[in-house]
Design goal:
With about 200 residues, the protein is of the alpha/beta class. The chain has a single domain, classed as Response regulator (Rossmann fold, 3-Layer(aba) Sandwich). Helices cover about 35% and strands about 10% of the residues. The chain is built from five helices and four strands, in the order E-H-E-H-H-E-H-E-H. It has helices at about 25-40, 65-70, 90, 100-110, 140-170, and strands at about 15-20, 45-50, 95, 120. It has a four-stranded parallel beta sheet. It is globular, with a radius of gyration of 15 Å.
Length: about 200
C-alpha cells in the first residue's frame, strides 16, 4: 500500500533513488555522485538508481559515464542496471527523475502505488519549478557526458545542503516534492541502473 504523504512529514530523508530510462548513463552517475558526497559528509544514506525500461538490465554503466566519473575520482563500474518498480515507493524517501518522460514512465509502472509527494525532477533542486530535464547523452559523444556530470554534480550539492544538514543536526525535514507537470520517470541502487522505447537509451 502507499505510504501516506502525511507520514513523510517530520521524517528526515535518508534514502534516495535516482531514475532515468535505461539506468546506464544518467542515473548511475547520479547514484555515484550523491553516494560520494554523502560519504564525504559523513551521512549514512542509502542511494540507489534504476531505469524505467528493461533494455539494459544487468549491464554496467555506459563506458563514457564510467570514464567521466572516474576522472572525478568516482568508481561506478560495479553498478548494474535494474528496472524501476512500484515497490521503490516503499523503499525510498525521495525519488529523483532525470527527465519528465521518466516521470511519466514511473507513473505508468507504479500505477496506484505512484506517490507524487516523493517524486521530483533532479534539476528542480537547482532551478525550483523550472521542470528542466537532464539531457540523455546516450546517442552523443563524450562532451555531452561531461555536461551531464556537471548538472548532476550541482544538483547533488543542493540535495546534501537540503537534507544533509537536517540529518546531521537532527532537525526533521519534509520529504516531498512537486511532481513535474503531468509526467512520469525511472534508475538503480547505491548498489545500480536501464534505456527507452525505440532504441535502448538511458
Amino acid at each position: 500500500m502507499n505510504t501516506p504523504a502525511s507520514s513523510l512529514l517530520n521524517t528526515p530523508a535518508s534514502s534516495f533513488l535516482m531514475v532515468c530510462l535505461g539506468n546506464i548513463c544518467r542515473s548511475p552517475l547520479a547514484e555515484g555522485i550523491l553516494q560520494e558526497k554523502a560519504r564525504a559528509a559523513g551521512l549514512t544514506w542509502k542511494v540507489d538508481s534504476a531505469g524505467t525500461n528493461g533494455y539494459h538490465i544487468g549491464e554496467a554503466p555506459h563506458p563514457l559515464s564510467q570514464k567521466v566519473a572516474r576522472a572525478k575520482g568516482i568508481d561506478i563500474s560495479q553498478q548494474r542496471a535494474r528496472k524501476f518498480n512500484a515497490n521503490d515507493f516503499q523503499r525510498f524517501d525521495k525519488i529523483y527523475a532525470m527527465a519528465e518522460d521518466v516521470v511519466h514512465e514511473m507513473r505508468r509502472i507504479a500505477g496506484r502505488s505512484f506517490d507524487p509527494s516523493k517524486v521530483e525532477l533532479l534539476l528542480n533542486e537547482l532551478h525550483p519549478g523550472k521542470n528542466e530535464d537532464v539531457p540523455d547523452p546516450y546517442y552523443g559523444s563524450e562532451p555531452g557526458y561531461h555536461e551531464v556530470y556537471k548538472m548532476i554534480d550541482a544538483a547533488a550539492d543542493k540535495i546534501i545542503e537540503k537534507y544533509g544538514q537536517n540529518a546531521s543536526s537532527g532537525t526533521p525535514s519534509i520529504v516531498s516534492g512537486s511532481t513535474p507537470s503531468s509526467t512520469g520517470s525511472g534508475t538503480t541502487s547505491s548498489t545500480t541502473g536501464p534505456g527507452s522505447s525505440q532504441s535502448p537509451k538511458l
